[in-house]
Amino acid sequence: MAMVCTYHPDREAVGACVNCGHLICDECKTVLGGRIYCSPCADKMFATRAETGIDRTEAGVLGAENTSGQGSLAVIPREIGGWNWGAFLLNWIWAIGNSVWIGLLGLIPLVGFVMSFVLGAMGNEWAWRYKRWDSVEHFKRTQRTWTKWGIIIVPGSIAFCIITFTIIMIIVNVTF
After folding, report:
1. Are residues 55 and 96 in the same domain?
2. How big is the chain by its Cα radius of gyration, in Å?
3. Is residue 71 assigned to a domain?
4. N or C: which end of the chain has fewer CB within 10 A?
């Protein structure tokens, strides 16, 4: 006995919606990120374009959708893969700016050191998943800006600490 579509009982089902579990035919399915959704669930996901920035008609076209900010439903574009220097250098500050709340673990001593490496490795993916971006180019441009600030702030902070320590040592030696 063949399984039939929940919405079209005269048609054979080609899969089940990952959201509600209903069996669906080709006409009812919407594929997003390799996952199949039924029309009602897809309609709910794309109910307000202003909220998601995704047009339902674009969702079925591979590469046309911008799924940023959709958490685990987000499809990670290949172009944004790789190491994120901004996340590595500015860890918890970068995490706040990119809505990657797990990055706040960087505030915990010792954990913060490890978290810098985790954010460097996973930062691009997490930033895409948890913050809404206008486009891949917008994402890349913003992450380049974070990297530039990290390259300025971290060495600048180290230089400031060395200069301050040197001045304190000179003052201490002069007074004794």
Report:
1. no
2. 24
3. no
4. N
What's this model's pTM, rounded to 2 decimal places? 0.59
Identify the domain containing residue 98 by its residue range. Answer: 79-175
Are β-strands 15-16 and 30-32 bridged in parallel, bridged antiparallel, or unpaired? unpaired
CA atoms within 13 A on the CB side of 146: 27
Helical spans, DSSP H, in 98-131: 111-130
- Can you list the alpha helix ranges (DSSP code H) found in the chain? 39-45, 49-52, 56-59, 85-97, 111-130, 136-175
pLDDT tens sequence across 8-46: 999 999 988 888 889 999 888 888 767 788 888 877 776
| Residue located via tokens 């997003």 | 32
Q: Render pLDDT for 149-168 as a digit per residue (tens, 0 to 9).
A: 999 999 999 999 999 999 99
